[in-house]
Amino acid sequence: MKAVYIVIPAYDEEKLIGQVVQDVAKEGFTSIIVVDDGSSDTTSQAAQSAGAIVIRHRINRGKGAATRTGIEAAVQLGADIVVTMDGDGQHSPKDIHAVIQPIMENKYEVVLGSRQISKGAMPSHKIVHNKIANTITLLYSGIRVQDSQSGFRAYSRHACTLLDTTSDSYEYESEIIRLIAAHKLSYVEAPISTLYTDYSTSKLHKQDISNGIRTVYKMLWKALS
Amino acid sequence: MQPITLQFYQIVVVGIALFMIYTGTQKFLSRGAGQSLLKLLVRIVVWGGMAAVALFPEFTDVLAKLIGLEGNINAVILVGFLLVFLMIFKILSVVERIEQDITRTVRRESLDQFQGRKK
Which positions in chain B touch A142 (Cβ < 8 Å)? Predict the structure, then answer.
């Protein structure tokens, strides 16, 4: 049986992180690493109380940086498969089974969770944001994917050791796709459901406005420098 | 037909441009780390443009008329702008490198603490 570790980067997620950890555990995955990315609230305590292994960044470094820290910890702990998912409750832990299956069967090295991008299934501003991000990711990596910004992904141990990311923020997701191309890793997209609660939508909206332009700028910067 | 005579600087610029385009294409085709189609295209446009200007200096007249630049003082201002952009590029590179160093340090400390807790 392969050891599956779930990595959840979290920043000021005290309201939901405990519930997310418990929901993941209910699906039978008890090796859960929460990376508290310098939260100013009680995210660490909430995650630990719920049964997660907690690693804490002294200062906030961004989702990409926290995810990589979690992946490194999982590899150190002997993970065969690492699943990354968001800590705001937008990802359904039930989908973990689907994203790890292709790696369990040794068919692929990376599985990219892919949200349904259509009206009704996703807020309209998110659809526009995704289409722009997908186009830039295509130029950046040469790979066309349906959802370049999904944080719900699974990696084999081999892939984890190769994906030497340097992006700290939301451009991390696109950098992963570029590295998949650079290292010629086999990958597949798996459909996942997304729960757009008031809580997760408010966080997503904040990310879009404040970080969208910065993310594009950083991706272009990395492509050109 | 008149023989084409090239100045020394033209040969140097074209040589460097061809070398840069060749290495960029080679890196892209071998899927080197950090390579992308966008990066290759930018490299071709920038270095190809420099080679074109070196080979056909009169092209700058067309360009100057096109963007409304005329006279030496404007050329000086343009060079000044280019230098400022170059400095900004350099400063942003340094900032990016410092950001990455901070992240590596924070990560190392977090993982060391985690390892310490395990023991």
Answer: 36-37
Domain ranges, residue A118: 4-224
ipTM value for the complex: 0.83
Crossing angle, helix B72-118 and helix A63-76, to 10 degrees? 40
Q: A141 and B39: CB-CB below 8 Å?
A: no
Instruction: Test A140 with B38 for CB contact under 8 angstroms.
Output: yes
Q: What are the start-end ranges of the E strands in chain B?
A: none
Task: Write the burial class of residue A199 (CB in 10 Å: 0-12 exposed, 13-18 middle, 19+ buried).
Answer: middle
Q: What is the mean pLDDT of each run of 10 residues along chain A (225 residues)?
A: 95 94 96 96 96 96 96 96 94 95 96 79 74 82 87 96 88 90 94 77 55 66 60
Domains: count for chain A:
1
Residues of chain B under the 50 pLDDT cut: none
A162 contact residues in B (CB cutoff 8 A): none
Give the span between the Cα atoms of A59 and A28, in whole angstroms: 32
Question: Any chain A CB within 8 A of the CB of B105?
Answer: no
Select from A58, A181, A221 the Cβ nearest to the Cβ of B106.
A58
